[in-house]
Amino acid sequence: MEHVLVVNAQDEVIGTMEKMEAHRTGTLHRAFSVLVFNSRGEMLIQKRAHTKYHSPALWTNACCSHPRPEEDILDAGKRRLKEEMGIDATPTFAYKFTYKTIFNPRMIEHEVDHVLVATYDGSPTVNQTEVEDWKFVSMEELKKDIAADPQRYTSWFKLIMDHKHPVPTL
Q: Catalytic site residues?
């Protein structure tokens, strides 16, 4: 059973909770989203597997998840990037934001999302239970596609892309 870090509005840990319970109740908890760029400045995006419990078959950032209790956020990002995309890279912290998305009355994502950034040139070896497809895409092309077809993308990824500075200068 996987647990998440329950936090207050200042992102201070106030406890832990079973992950699915946190999503059923909409309890604020800590998460991270890893953005991966190649040396040409293109972003690696993935299409989530159809079997995911929320946001299935939607395009999003390279990976996202929750740190385990007692796990540093950067270590968690590195771990999950390897597990999900087969990429061994060390992310750095960019910024964080809080969001709440209600998928249905029994699935609410309420997270303080730490946006992490890493660089990688190569082809990922994806975990097919997590990832259906992937591609590197230019920021210009990505922004155009999100504007034209926003329902193809996850809620948190659209917020990241709407951020004043979604991507730090590499």
A: 64, 111
